[in-house]
Design brief:
Helix content is about 50%, strand content about 15%. With about 220 residues, it is α+β, with helices and mostly antiparallel strands. The protein has three domains: about 5-55, Arc Repressor Mutant, subunit A (Orthogonal Bundle), CATH 1.10.10.10; about 80-155, Orthogonal Bundle (Arc Repressor Mutant, subunit A), CATH 1.10.10.10; about 165-205.
């Protein structure tokens, strides 16, 4: 058993929270391969920055909501290395994550890694404005993320119901009286290049006491 080396190792981490293998080996007087074994027996995290060269004990980090622990310029993740961490964060995101989102979370460049993950089929992606948003490749997760992302994009692009837009809504409603509010949104986007939300149309109808048939799906008055 390596109880004394383990105890000495813990003492070193009590003086400094993060070490490189070479520094630990020099202090303990053991080969690097032995130090790695001691670390494995105690439990450790390895940095996803600085080429994974820095180590900390399993008991030291206090992770944030994303599972990231920053220490000076170093970053550690409870999810594993950079690729494992990106995969986890993307899968757990309701609407997927862009490269900028991930850089803000990880404080580490991600663009090249994301491109490779997409090329190798580990992540899906979808164009959202000027950037790509990366998504899970798990079918159900991917579908949920795409639907929520599309709704978010629609909300961001939605226009207030101006007089001109209101006229467009009424004209299309006259031509498609049984359409749901969601259907009217699609018609307006396609035929009038007008982006509004279903609830905006519903509120407009309610305020002007416009009655809607109940034969179609979606929101009703």
């Amino acid at each position: 058993m390596y109880l004394q080396p383990q105890a000495d190792l813990k003492k070193l981490f009590a003086t400094r929270k993060c070490w490189m293998i070479e520094g630990l080996a020099a202090k303990l007087g053991y080969a690097a391969i032995s130090v790695r074994r001691f670390l494995k027996e105690i439990g450790y995290f390895r940095s996803y920055t600085h080429n994974g060269k820095w180590y900390t004990l399993h008991s030291i980090p206090v992770f944030n909501a994303q599972g990231i622990w920053p220490h000076e310029e170093l970053r550690f993740s409870k999810h594993g290395n950079l690729i494992q961490t990106i995969n986890h964060l993307v899968r757990k995101s309701p609407t997927g994550l862009s490269a900028k989102d991930l850089v803000d979370m990880l404080h580490h460049p991600c663009h090249t890694v994301l491109t490779n993950l997409h090329k190798t089929g580990q992540l899906a992606r979808m164009k959202a404005g000027p950037e790509f948003v990366y998504l899970s490749t798990v079918s159900k997760e991917n579908l949920r993320q795409r639907e929520r992302l599309q709704l978010r994009m629609l909300r961001e692009a939605a226009q207030p119901l101006t007089a001109e837009a209101a006229i467009c809504v009424l004209v299309e409603f006259i031509h498609h009286p049984s359409s749901s509010f969601e259907d009217l949104v699609g018609i307006l986007r396609k035929r009038r290049k007008t982006v509004v939300l279903p609830e905006t149309i519903e509120l407009f109808f309610r305020e002007h006491h416009i009655k809607k048939t109940r034969g179609s799906q979606g929101s009703r008055l």
